[in-house]
Design brief:
The protein has about 180 residues and is an alpha/beta fold. Helices cover about 30% and strands about 35% of the residues. It contains four helices and eight strands, in the order E-E-H-E-H-H-E-E-E-H-E-E. The chain has helices at about 40-45, 60-80, 85-105, 145-150; strands at about 10-15, 25-30, 55-60, 110-115, 115-125, 130-140, 150-160, 165-175. The strands form three sheets. The protein has a four-stranded parallel sheet with strand order 2-1-3-4. Strands 5-6 form a two-stranded antiparallel sheet. It has a two-stranded antiparallel ribbon with strand order 7-8. Helix 2 (about 60-80) packs antiparallel against helix 3. The longest helix is centred in the middle third of the chain and has 20 residues, at about 60-80. It is globular.
Amino acid sequence: RFALSFPRVCVVDTEAGTDPYKSKYEFKVKHLTKWNELKTVLDWVRKNPVECETLVIDSMTVFYQSLINEVTDYVKNRRGNEILSMGDWGVVKRRWSALMIALTDLPCHVILSMREKEEFEATTNREGEEVRKKTGNHLMEADKQTKYIFDISLRCSVDKDKKKKTAEYKVTVDKTRYDWLPI
């Protein structure tokens, strides 16, 4: 809803999540899931700045995973396995970085939604075995540099109290370039 409240919204919807909002908000929508399909949308946004003042991509994680799958398929066809080398990960990183630059160069607001995963750390238990333990932190499922490219990074979360059967919705500012928005 936050993203749909911006002016003249165009949504790239990877999960059919905009369907419930069609009657409540006015926006254009394109349903995509493949990495290589994004170029067409970005070209259209550049050519139609009056029609698209805000580009929303939900979820950008789908495109990050699609990029990794594309590179993995290439590696599998060339080498017969799906193991990405450091050089292969460099290709992923360069392509992702080029997309992030293309997004920041668009003549509109850009809002990216990303999935997240729990962060784990390696620790040693009492038996001396190495185990993975949750840190309580969360990581976006995309290249870790992504949040530093944009002006503002927000994390939306829900704190559920199962005993009281309540939920508290939170928005945390992870990063900002603006003094008026405190961290």
